[in-house]
Amino acid sequence: MTKVEDARETRPSGDIVEEIRAWLKDNWDPDLTVAEWWERLGLAGWSAPSLPTHAFGRDLSRTDSLVVSREIAAFGALGPPGGLGLLLAAPTIASFGTPEQIDRYVRDIVTGQRGWCQLFSEPGAGSDLAGLTTRALKDGEEWVINGQKVWTSLGQAADLGMLLARTEPEVPKHQGISWMVLDMHQEGVEVRPLREMTGHALFNEVFIADARVPAEDVIGDVNNGWAVANATLAFERSGLGAGGGGAASSAAMPGTIAGHLSRRAGDFVSGRANRGGAGEEAAILQPMGTQMLLALARENGKDKDPVIRQGLAKLYTLGELGRFNAERMRAARAAGRDIPGLPNIAKLSMSDMMRLSRDLGMAIAGPAATLHAYTAEARPPLESLPQSMLVGAVTGMALYAQAPPIYGGTDQIQRNIIGERVLGLPKEPNNDRTAKFSELPKNG
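Above: the chain sequence. Below: its structure as tokens.
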């Protein structure tokens, strides 16, 4: 264990609390623009403190990072830029990128200058991600991209995309993939929203026709994208898994499309800002917390119901187990070890928490849980009813709870991975590890 890792594991959280409180007292100013505040927060290492110090972080443990998030929220300051940039792109680029790529991309992530999306899944390559057919052909110092992606979260608000493309079809399918940074603003990139039963359009389909990626924007070397993608998926499963949430998720959206960077930072803290759009849709990515459901139960007089109380205790327990498992994984990696299957277990636990949040919320809300506003125009009549404002979150969660067991790798995929890679159960017979991708039957 290095000195940095040793310090990370043993540094008392109390020191972190004192440091972040002192820093906030000296630096938080609600009259700053969102961009100005996020630049202060990000360059000081507080936007993503779990990132390494060489990638605009502070090399803190997951527990201490959550402490930082809670302190920012408790202080009344605007939280760090949320979204897939901070969750997925930043740790991936910090792990596999060159110093130049880290400076070019991670800096803009922690300061909220660019919003990101994930361009992995395809209509014929969802459960079998390595079967993707989006092609990248070399043209001088650029790659020319053609293909289609689907289930792209927050694609409508993204400046950049984490793109998986096939750069070599004449090798086995896992060996010919590259992880690239795609400029979403260029000609040849079309984003179409997919409206869900929640009324939102969190997911999108993306059509790519002769778009271009500079050669220096390949992360982790050409044809090594499967290894990089697996790291991204591990960050996704850990981050979306139980215990992965933070307390200071920002109401402001990062990037140039949402239009929040030039606005007053304090407005987003006070709640006067109209979130709308992708910001509101992104808010349902995590299960409803125990405290929120407990507040609703007390308001509705159901906090004494033994079944409700048991459910709340179970939800809290699952969250704590997820947090402890995240700490176990971080400690193991700091010591040069791994805990096989733990990110997959975290993802499965998150699915359980979403379903439990759904069922508890609807049981607590009662008949009001059957009412939902599918459009902005339908919200005022519901908001005028004599019921908690939390009921809207309950109904949104109930409708949305079917998605997490699918995205980020279905629950069935997680169980397959645990069975094959952890328990050593046999895979289905196939030759996809040896045959050229061009010779394999294609999905869909």
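The longest strand covers residues 203-214.
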